Amino acid sequence: MTDWSTLGPLAVFFGAIFTNNILLTNYLGMCSFLSISREIKSSMGLGAAVVFVMAMTNALNWPIHYYVLVPLGLTYLGFIVYIIVIAASVQLVEMIVERVSETLYQNLGIFLPLITVNCAVFGAVLFMFIRKYTFLASLAYGVGGGLGWALAIVAMAGLRAKMSRARVPRGLEGAGITLIITGIMALAFMGFSGMIPAA
Amino acid sequence: MADIPAPAPASGAPARPARPRGKAYQAFIDGVGANNPVFMQVLGICSTLAVTNVVSNTVVMCLGLIWATAMSNLSVSILRRWIPARVRMIVETLIIAVWVILVDIVLRAYLPDMSRTLGPYVGLIITNCIVMGRTEAFGLTNPPGLALIDGISAGLGYSYVLLIIAVIRELAGSGSIMGFKVLGQWWTNWSIFVMPAGAFFLLATFIWIVKGVILKEAKK
Q1: Does residue B30 fall inside a structural domain?
Q2: What's the predicted TM-score (pTM) here?
Q3: Between A190 and B37, whose confidence is greater?
Q4: Which of A128, B99, B118, B186 is the most buried (most CB within 10 A)?
């Protein structure tokens, strides 16, 4: 087993983007990835929202876990607490986006509240506790994980935009071809592995 | 995909003479076949695709998922008259979280090694889109008996797809099934199947085949 806890924040940050991309190596956040990656613009919006939410939830959940749940012996309630924190952060982001950009709000539509159940956000929280990251590393993991996810979805949206003119076998249209491209992207990202020692 | 044998789960259906087992049966068939969450809606592959490199992990995950889907669908359905529409998402999530915490505790107590291998993925059942999707689309509007059946069938429909993927991945990737060596020394492991990319390719192929069959049937 790799000892994740000794990695510095910077290594964790770049590791989360490239070597341990939360989407391409941990399969998290696939649902919104598959359905939103049709347009570059909305995928960028969603990516930005995920970066923000992930950083925020990691930063909030870390102290809650170590200063409230652990001393009180309530770690078994962890899942519920993390989810509530995530839901609250998403609500906040939703309100901000609604104020700042009406078009973005309409584009993201139903998917913004769905970040609450975006596996990537929740997964990042669980991973940071399992790998026993320090607070700074957790924050770096949140930002990096979000950026990695955003990178993957924006790249996919770009590829799909080009691909819309190509002829795809009918059975593969939509999800099928997207998954195959995701697989190729995962292969490409594997080229990064080994760049960070122990990660 | 009507070739999956489906025992009519009439006993679980609500006792309503006007609607005999037809509806329950339909709910069951829908989840396993025509409306299968994995290849028709491509939902909820996040948490479970990750553990399909070994069959035994997949079995445990799938059991947990079926349990969580069925129970949360049932509880949401029972509480549906009291859940305010505005906050229903968070209520559903919390209900799901409770059932998943139970899975997590049981795993930790009885299968500690398995719990460690699965790592965060057990907890991630909470955010699995299928569980949420079923409670939202079915549990909120249907009576408890039907909701239970719908949850079980959605879970089963999901599980068999993932089990097929897991069997292929473990067989090709490590030459074994459930940890037992099946293929002999002559077999060269295809390490791509153990890597994440292999899972994506396999799922895509699976969807391709199923969709191809459906498209052909639609043409006839």
Answers
A1: no
A2: 0.80
A3: A190
A4: A128
